[in-house]
Specification:
Number of strands of chain B: 22
CATH architecture of the largest domain in chain B: 3-Layer(aba) Sandwich
GO molecular function, one term (chain A): transmembrane transporter activity
Number of strands of chain A: 4
Shape of chain B: globular
Order of helices and strands of chain A: HHHHHHEHEEHHHHEHHH
Structural class of chain B: alpha/beta
Largest sheet of chain A: 2 strands, antiparallel
Oligomer: heterodimer
Protein name (chain A): Ribose transport system permease protein
Number of helices of chain A: 14
CATH class of the largest domain in chain B: Alpha Beta
Shape of chain A: globular
Structural class of chain A: mainly alpha
Largest interface: A-B, 32 and 40 residues
CATH class of chain A: Mainly Alpha
Helix content of chain A: over 70%
Organism (chain A): Thermocatellispora tengchongensis
Strand content of chain A: under 5%
CATH architecture of chain A: Orthogonal Bundle
Strand content of chain B: 15-25%
Radius of gyration of chain A: 20 Å
CATH topology of the largest domain in chain B: Rossmann fold
Subcellular location (chain A): Cell membrane
Keywords (chain A): Cell membrane, Membrane, Transmembrane, Transmembrane helix
CATH superfamily of the largest domain in chain B: P-loop containing nucleotide triphosphate hydrolases
Chain lengths: 335, 498
């Protein structure tokens, strides 16, 4: 039985003819995380009246969007049984690149495109090394984490880069449409796009096949290495996009930004029910998990609890969610 | 021959799982010093019964007596302590540890916190000597050939001083000479008064090694037979219940015309050097040989899965399989040796498994829906029994899983050459016959089939021609309609025609 929220959602929608017990279990699993999320929101609005204000929710979405975008890319990597530890460094590099390019007079759109492309190339290199040489992606991206962070510092000798970007560019990361932050819209759009790719295209099916059994996928004639390289490229591109959005909000490129981002992203992926060994899960689970973690942080802030306390709570919630998922999976497996 | 003291008595064993009754009142009685064969089609309840015996499952009803004492193990550990050792098909040895470490895992002789390595090596040596194995105890299990691992697993069962030793299809991975070795050990075990429960699908082995046999069918005991007075026909009849059509050579006209696959030479230095094999459309060419003779290597080389110098033509066009993906594009299809590790994605559904090779062309969208639509015909035609296309393939029986592997290639279509590597391993008699019927049906549509099997009788029954591989070379070709099986068997074992 699947523990994944994302696959559960789509499976419940799409596999109307599937087994009844499986659908039942999926529903429980699906609602598991959603219910926890909603319960948390209710608790939050009771404890802190300002939680449900438009301003606060907009804040919340803006804060979680960047991590969320990266976590979507991470979900695809984890679905192939890989892991991408380099996302924080790639994001910082992307943010610096876009600032430097615009600082040197390049128009906004090409600057963004190049920054994202560079992120994709970084991802493709690390993923390709893993796929074609059989190196564990844990190691290639760990190397990337260090090396790319170093490169980021080398760009400006560690100093922030002034983007001097236009107002249009600053709107991208810091702007709102009504109460809705633009980065939030980007996050939602990317989630939907990723879900469509994963569930609605042959490539997405290959991602699940490779994650489920790489050897069987290879012997079925699937382009396993290309699939792995591609998901890492996607992860790199999305990380760079997050960097671009941050630079847009801050108006400067920060070489120290996003350190530790990979752990937040992985936490969201796992909390969202994607199996770390690949083949099961999906982006909707990740989406809800990102919001959940963010609400948790927000609530702690509103209650005036310090960030040390937040870290403890986040860790415990992660643990409880994992145990809950495991128990439900066991029940499902026995039924 | 065994005496008639009853060593193990299981009676009225019932085991229910949610939605199904796996065992519905099974009786099993095993005497001291006896080789007792446990037979039954896949899903008849053999594994469940043995898991109850081992202590992995608790029965819902029924009693077990071991040497007259009530026996009800709560865990496998308790089962082992009571003298029940189960050697599973997937030998539960730790590949990175040495033979000695494996043999005395958790029971190594100690001095304070330190392992007494010399003493452990000595004990391990004794255990290996008892099964007549002469490889060093310091070898990591990973480096041992499969037969040696099997002996190690038996030796491990002996270190626990087991009274009842269960062997779950030990022969599935063994060649003939290795099997003879294991049989010798079994005989010496029973001579010491130990009982062996032997699970196998191969009738010849059962007839050779067994004293009595219990046949399970649909979770019930279908009969107990004294093997000195029973023929394989009766056993098979008891296993399958009503008379099903068995695998018999059918008189096919030998396919004629230009070969579809023409192998001039396949060369893997030090491993394989095969020359001159041709397969015509509609023809099934069997590859016979001992374990390690190169059957799997040949198929993997043709499929582009290992580096090899391949000089071959497919419908007259040079075949250069650089990768499995290229081989598949050229029209080759492989049913690999291990369906669980190489053939299937066990965590995905039946239809997703069957569709995966066919999705590499338009429409590129909606793989779930497309998959269910395009696999429906193949799954129906093959008679795959599942709760529906959405069921996880890991939950199917072995025979149905193998059919899903086949369905994957049928769904893809345009197969020109089908490579089958031990397709019937672990399948029961009915599922085997079913699978071969499907393969013959595919051949009838013009597919050229290369069938590697260690079961010579299956080859003689199903192949149009048989090529014998011996130590990496093809040494002889036979027409099973003309050559008696004994002659082919002789060549398989000795590498020379009599």
């Amino acid at each position: 039985m699947t523990t994944s929220i994302g696959s559960a959602m789509t499976a419940a929608v799409k596999e109307a003819g599937g087994g009844r017990s499986r659908r039942g279990t999926d529903l429980i699993v699906k609602s598991n995380l959603l219910l926890v999320f909603l319960a948390l929101c209710v608790v939050a609005s009771l404890l802190a009246p300002q939680f449900l204000t438009g301003r606060n929710i907009a804040n919340l979405l803006q804060q979680s969007a960047l991590t969320g975008i990266v976590a979507i890319g991470m979900t695809m990597v984890v679905l192939t049984a890989g892991i991408d530890l380099s996302v924080g460094s790639v994001a910082a590099f992307g943010g610096m690149t876009v600032a430097l390019l615009m600082g040197s007079g390049m128009p906004v759109l090409p600057a963004i495109a190049i920054s994202i492309a560079v992120g994709a190339v970084f991802g493709a290199i690390m993923g390709g090394l893993s796929a074609y040489l059989g190196l564990p992606s844990f190691m290639t991206t760990l190397a990337g984490l260090t090396a790319i962070r170093g490169l980021t510092y080398l760009l400006t000798d560690g100093k922030p880069a002034d983007g001097g970007g236009s107002e249009a560019f600053q709107l991208l990361g810091g702007g709102f449409i009504g109460y809705v932050p633009i980065v939030g819209i980007v996050f939602v759009a990317i989630t939907i796009l990723a879900a469509l790719v994963l569930r609605g295209t042959t490539f997405g099916e290959y991602v699940y096949a490779v994650g489920s059994n790489k050897e069987a996928a290879r012997l079925s004639g699937l382009p396993v290495r290309a699939v792995i390289t591609t998901v890492f490229a996607v992860s790199g591109a999305l990380a760079a996009l997050a960097g671009v959005l941050l630079t847009s909000r801050l108006t400067v490129g920060q070489p120290t930004a996003f350190s530790g981002l990979e752990l937040d992203a992985i936490a969201a992926v796992v909390l969202g029910g994607t199996n770390l060994f690949g083949g099961r899960g999906g982006v909707f689970g990740t989406f809800v998990a990102v919001l959940l973690l963010s609400v948790l942080r927000n609530l702690c802030n509103l209650l005036g609890l310090g960030s040390f306390f937040q870290m403890v709570v986040t860790g415990l919630i992660l643990l409880v969610a994992l145990i809950l998922n495991m128990l439900i999976e066991r029940r499902g497996a026995r039924a | 021959m065994s005496d008639t003291t009853e060593r193990l008595h299981m009676s009225g064993i019932v085991k229910r799982f949610p939605g199904t009754v796996a065992l519905d009142g099974v009786d099993l009685s095993v005497r001291a010093g006896e080789v007792h064969c446990l037979l039954g089609e896949n899903g008849a309840g053999k594994s469940t019964l043995m898991k109850i015996l081992a202590g992995s499952y608790q029965p819902d009803e029924g009693t077990i007596l071991l040497d007259g004492e009530p026996y009800r193990p709560a865990t496998p550990h308790a089962g082992l302590a009571a003298g029940i050792a189960v050697i599973y098909q997937e030998l539960d040895l730790l590949p990175d540890l040495t033979v000695a470490q494996n043999l005395l895992l958790g029971r190594a002789p100690r001095l304070g916190p330190f392992v007494r390595r010399a003493r452990r090596a000595g004990l391990a040596r004794e255990a290996l000597d008892r099964v007549g194995a002469n490889f060093p105890v310091t070898t990591p299990v990973r480096e041992l050939p499969i037969a040696a691992r099997q002996l190690t697993a038996i030796a491990k069962a002996l270190t626990a001083d087991a009274r009842v030793i269960v062997m779950d299809e030990p022969s599935a991975t063994l060649g003939e000479s290795e099997l003879a070795r294991v049989f010798e050990v079994i005989r010496s075990l029973t001579a010491e008064g130990r009982s062996v429960i032997f699970i196998s699908h191969r009738m010849e082995e059962v007839m050779e090694i067994g004293h009595r046999a219990t046949v399970l069918r649909d979770g019930r005991t279908a009969g107990v037979f004294d093997l000195s007075s029973t023929g394989p026909g009766e056993l098979v009849a008891a296993m399958i219940g009503e008379a099903k059509e068995l695998v018999r050579p059918t008189a096919h006209p030998a396919p004629e015309g230009e070969p579809r696959l023409s192998v001039e030479r396949v060369h893997v230095p030090g491993l394989l050097d095969v020359r001159g094999i041709e397969v015509r459309p509609g023809e099934i060419v069997g590859l016979a040989g001992l374990g390690g003779a190169g059957r799997t290597t040949l198929l993997r080389a043709l499929f582009g899965d290992i580096k090899a110098q391949v000089t071959a033509r497919l419908d007259g066009v040079p075949l250069r399989p650089g990768s499995p993906a290229a081989a598949v594009r050229a029209g080759l299809a492989l049913v690999p040796e291990s369906r669980k590790e190489q053939g299937l994605m066990l965590g995905l559904s039946v239809s997703r498994n069957a569709a995966i090779a066919a999705l590499g062309r338009p429409p590129w969208l909606m793989p779930g829906r497309t998959g269910r639509r395009i696999t429906a015909d193949a799954l129906t035609a093959l008679g795959v029994k599942s709760a529906g296309p959405g069921q996880l393939v890991g939950q199917l029986s072995g025979g149905n899983q193998q059919k899903v592997v086949l369905a994957k290639w049928i769904t893809r279509g345009r197969i020109r050459v089908l490579l089958l590597d031990e397709p019937t391993r672990g399948l029961d008699v009915g599922a085997k016959a079913d699978l071969y019927r499907q393969v013959r049906h595919l051949a009838g549509q013009g597919v050229a089939v290369l069938l590697a099997s260690s079961e010579l009788n299956e080859l003689t029954a199903n192949a149009d021609r048989i090529q014998v591989l011996y130590e990496g070379r093809n040494v002889a070709g036979f027409d099973p309609r003309v050559s008696p099986e004994s002659v082919i068997a002789h060549t398989v074992i000795t590498g020379a025609t009599p």
